[in-house]
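Exercise 3.2. Students should predict the tertiary structure of the chain below and write it as structure tokens, then compare their answer with the key that follows.

Predict this chain's 3D structure.
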Amino acid sequence: DKIGMLFWRMHRCARIIFSMNYHLGKWTPQQCIDFLVDRVGFERANAEAEVRRSFTGGYGPLYQIGYMLGGLQFRALYKELVGGGKMSNIQFHDRILKENNMPVEMVRALLTNQTLPENFSTKWKFAGSIN
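Answer key:
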């Protein structure tokens, strides 16, 4: 499980690196593929598919980093609520799925029973430890 988790993290970080380099005009698609093969350990066909999907799938330049930051925010929220004994694993996941598509900051407020003012707006930043 730990090796799979570490590969997943490396894969997510690699997506950020090659996507940003490509969108900044520093790398070609071939350089992105080579990076995934040489530095991450992808098989070439999988790297080609990953790069093709990333650049033809309608993803903007910041999609990959936003995905990673959202994942880190959800992980911190999980640690706070489930790790802190405030709710069970299944309660946490059921609530996340029920609340649907909204910023993690607002999901956190709902799961911790905070009342938000009518004019509330998210701060859009990650704060606190992610370990």
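Discussion points: The chain has a mean pLDDT of 88. Residues 68-131 form one domain.
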